[in-house]
Design a protein that fits this description.
Helices cover about 30% and strands about 25% of the residues. By secondary structure, the chain is an alpha/beta fold. It folds into 2 domains: about 180 residues, ornithine cyclodeaminase, domain 1; about 190 residues, 3-Layer(aba) Sandwich (Rossmann fold). The longest helix is centred in the middle third of the chain and has 19 residues. The structure holds nicotinamide-adenine-dinucleotide. The site of nicotinamide-adenine-dinucleotide (NAD) has 30 residues, from α3 and α4.
């Protein structure tokens, strides 16, 4: 991180020309005896609310798709640290969870951090979104957290960006889909639609299916306000799949409920964003692309169940990065299923982009004196 980004009075540095008064809270007294002076500084701490996040990201869908692709490349090149997500579950609230996604990005971005994201599906009945999140960014040089961003919009945006990227990349050597079907019609489906249309997709037919008639109706109303093409609400899943050549799964299903490979006999492209809808039999009849093999084959995802069933990973064709780099080619006589686990590095990259834009515009909400105990010996 470059220090000039933090050109605020809250900056505290061991080499400052105007050090705070000795003994003042938070003041450095200079290096300890025997240690060399260092340019390391404690960054100010900022809070970036959802309205600022939205303001930065709206209308920048193409840039975010490019950023997500660049981050996948960087991750594939080994210039990231992305340990497994940690799932916090509750015996008294079995459908709920909170997931920690720690990560670190190298390259020019150089930032560490963690997304802490809750999924409480029952929220939807109360009229609020299922997922809520914060994203913490940590300074590369000191480890100090320097920002807390509203994380749900960043998370939904990077998810939709990876779906839009995959739609383009995986259909490059196949017939370009013109009939899309949304299986599960909540917030993520809305973001995926927004990112697809913002990156040049349009559809003659849009199919919609959801267990909840209210969700389907709400999504249909959204589509009517924004989309061209005929909209059909399907009460059954089979018809939705059979009538779509691009199928987007964005349900909250915990285990597979789409079992019959014959429904995919027309070889659609499937964006399996919700990861747990498809039976292993469906994956075994398809070409399978993931974003990261080790991440995706965990946590009872459909690819994980398929690995358990077969005892191997032979059903995987490759990663999105393999496809982008031309290392694998995809068949046009089988369905292609993209199952993206969604990596913490993507949240970090998008979060840092948002932070830099807000900071560059001089609009950071800095919390003065957030870090208060800075002197080791008082
Ligand atoms: N892979 C990733 O990186 C990633 C990132 C973000 C979200 N997600 C996943 O996307 C999914 C959707 O998230 P959301 O915020 O839109 O949720 P949401 O609660 O807003 O919407 C989910 C919808 O799915 C419907 N649904 C549930 N089970 C269904 C079924 N069997 N058949 C048809 N419809 C069904 C619900 O009625 C609801 O309308 C979640 O599973 C979430 O975990 C994945």
């Amino acid at each position: 991180m470059t220090l000039h980004r933090f050109d605020t009075p809250a900056m505290r540095t061991a080499t400052s020309e105007e050090p705070e008064a000795p003994g003042a809270p938070g003041a450095f007294e200079g290096p300890e005896p025997g240690t060399a002076p260092s340019p390391v500084a404690v960054p100010p701490f900022a809070v970036v609310p959802g309205a600022q996040v939205q303001q930065v990201l709206r209308g920048r869908e193409r840039q975010i798709v490019d950023l997500v692709e660049a981050t996948y490349r960087l991750h594939a090149a080994g210039d990231s640290v992305n340990p497994p997500s940690y799932f916090l579950r509750f015996p008294d609230r079995p459908t709920a969870r909170i997931i920690a996604l720690p990560a670190s990005i190298g390259g020019r971005t150089r930032v560490d951090g963690v997304k802490w994201i809750s999924s409480f599906p029952g929220n939807v009945q109360a009229g609020i979104a299922r997922a809520s999140a914060v994203l913490i960014l940590n300074d590369h040089d000191t480890g100090y957290p320097f920002a807390c961003l509203e994380g749900s919009v960043i998370s939904a945006s990077r998810t939709a960006a990876m779906a839009a990227s995959a739609a383009g990349r995986l259909s490059r050597h196949r017939r370009r889909p013109t009939r899309i079907g949304f299986f599960g019609t909540g917030l993520i489906a809305r973001y995926v639609h927004t990112y697809l249309t913002a990156t040049g997709w349009s559809f003659d037919h849009i199919g919609v299916h959801d267990l909840s008639a209210d969700s389907a109706a709400g999504f249909r109303a959204f589509l009517r306000g924004t989309a061209t093409g005929r909209i059909t609400v399907h009460t059954g899943p089979e018809q939705l799949i059979r009538s779509s050549d691009l199928v987007v799964f964005a349900t909250v299903a915990a285990r597979p409920h789409v079992m019959d490979p014959a429904w995919f006999g027309h070889n659609p492209l499937v964006l399996h964003v919700s990861l747990r809808d498809l039976a292993p039999e469906v994956l075994l009849a398809s070409a399978n692309v993931v974003d990261d093999v080790d991440h995706c084959l965990r946590a009872d995802t459909s690819p994980h169940l398929t690995e358990r069933l077969t005892g191997n990973r032979d059903f995987l064709t490759g990663t999105l990065d393999d496809v982008m780099a031309g290392r694998v080619s995809l068949p046009d006589d089988r369905p292609v299923v993209f199952s993206p686990f969604g990596l913490g590095v993507l949240d970090l990259a998008v979060g840092k982009y948002v932070y830099d834009e807000v900071a560059g515009a001089g609009r950071l909400h800095v919390v003065e004196d957030f870090f208060h105990e800075l002197r080791r010996h008082g």
